[in-house]
Amino acid sequence: MINELNSLNIVNVNTPDEIAAHTTLSAASKASILIEALPYIQKFAGKTMVIKYGGNAMISEELKTKVMQDIALMKYIGIKPVIAPIGAGKGETTYNINADYVAAEVAGALQAEKMLMLTNTKGIYTSLDDPKSFLSSIPKADATAMIENGTIQGGIIPKVEAVLHALECGTHRVSIIDGREPHALLLELFTNKGIGTEII
């Protein structure tokens, strides 16, 4: 993964078709995107972001590339991205670890500005059957209460528990985001509402 990141060209256009694909946005649209992102670039420059890399973002080759592009861009604009260990050893050796908890420990130890958890879910809902019940931000006390009263259920519970652990250890904020979304990291960091659930 490190080799992928080191050898990555964020945009590599060589043919007229490739150039055209990257010039479909008008100059004004490109400027608007940069203007929207600028306050967040300024806010996060020099800050440490711990990334829990997992879910479909680790399986799909296309999503892997987009995650690496996001991380490269974060690095180039002054953010300090840290990819938490995922339990991979030498060769094909893998280890059965709780990657969410490991990421939480890393984020806490580094006193990270933010931990970004790439998952296969958009975030937290007050009702799984109601897409409109999606929560873009909640205080950690509410997240704890939602586990206790059964609102948060199933596989998301250990993720939220890891989030709470990261916050207790000194991480400033944590976002659970959908790694199936291309460029999920950039969309969470550099847009007004983000795309996941931020727990603070």
UniProtKB/TrEMBL annotation:
Pathway: Amino-acid biosynthesis; L-arginine biosynthesis; N(2)-acetyl-L-ornithine from L-glutamate: step 2/4. Keywords: ATP-binding, Kinase, Nucleotide-binding, Transferase. SUPFAM superfamilies: Carbamate kinase-like. It comes from the Bacteria. Its EC number is 2.7.2.8. It catalyses: N-acetyl-L-glutamate + ATP = N-acetyl-L-glutamyl 5-phosphate + ADP. Residues 79-178 form the Aspartate/glutamate/uridylate kinase domain. One of its GO terms (molecular function) is ATP binding. Pfam families: AA_kinase. It is an enzyme of class 2 (transferase). GO terms for biological process: L-arginine biosynthetic process. The keyword Flavoprotein does not apply. This is acetylglutamate kinase.
